[in-house]
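ok here's Cation transport protein:
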Amino acid sequence: MIELQESFSLFKRLKSVPPVRLIVVSFFVVIMIGTTLLTLPITSRSGQFTAVIDALFTATSATCVTGLVTFDTWTHWNVFGQVVIILLIQTGGLGVITFTTGFTLLARRKLGLRELQLASENTSGDTMDVYQLVRTILIFTFSSELIGAAVLALRFVPKFGAHGIWISVFTAISAFCNAGFDILGFEKPDNSLIGYANDPLVCIPVALLIIVGGLGFIVIHNIYYAKLFPSLKKKKRLPLNLHSRVAICMTVALLVIGTVGFLAFEWNNTLEGKNFFQKLLVSFFQSTSARTAGFASVDIASEHDITKLLTVILMFIGAAPAGTGGGIKVTTFVVLVATVVSVMFGKEDTTLNHRRIEKGTVYRALSITTVSMLVVFFATGVILATNDHPISAIDALFEATSAFGTVGLTASLTPTLNWISKFVLSLTMFIGRVGPISLALAIAIKRARNKGAILPEGKIVVG
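and the structure:
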């Protein structure tokens, strides 16, 4: 009887926990499970225990779909270890709550109000259409990964036989989830996709999977029900909402800017020796990957500092909300730019495309960006301060931004870092995956404290 009362009390306390906290805890639990498994000898190729800090770093990187690794994935982990990593990537990419809620829906089980609230907050959707949204997420995810794996198999199966199927599946899931992990280290360790830089049959499918995964499930959902579904039913197509238009336009703009910038800066450097179309393909792939994927088709360490700086900017901005990518998100960046422009033109409110953006959204964008910059600067400082060997400031900033933006690109710095930097980068990856979401939701949930109180006005001179 006492045990039953304690269980009921625990369940009651769990139901009172804010959903945003449960989402953060769910990621933490998955990381801890992954860390435990990856520490065991059964996951390593050598059959020996893996250091806890390296297992933690890898599990965090996989769950937070980052791609930074302390050693080559194929060289260190056996097939079971690779399966653990890809499951962490899939779970982290979809989001733990979305994943579990989606299978509940597919099993035709009824969701309670609590589950609806969790799924809605984890997908940034409305509770009224969360059923459709989660179904869209799962069906679209698995369909995209299956198609991507099938296309990649056209290259890998003829080359590697049956093992090419596993490589194709692993790469497709990693690409769609914007993770950047690869298992091609048996060709050359830590080489990512550099060996396939000139191969459109590999680079283009991987790039498209990255773009689609990073575009955000809200945009995919909107495109389907506003454009594709009406066309199938021979009905009038609806206009896309403002969020989708901003996300798509900004994604295209950043891809073009990144491609042109990389092409110009690296023309006679990492792109030397390639023809124009190969240079264009590599530049497009690197621009795409910098948006939070982490695959590399060139040696990042050999890039010019100006190219690394451009990549840092792209990594920090990241992908669209409610997708598999990271960063502060393209919509956050657009709101900030729109706010600056509105202030410069003397407007009282932030306006975008003849629409007024609510002040709460502007405040959240400012808060997310500010906290994100502080996290990146802190991680950069730790890397520079705690490692004995010389590290350039741009490489340290590159590594920290890559971790926060859950990108995974590295200037060959990760394996050389000490345990302090690895731990801080693990924390940075975790914050980058759940922090901005948690911060936005925490600010959005207003507590009714002193609601009727009138505070005196404070004046501060700025600028």
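+1. The first helix runs from residue 2 to 16.
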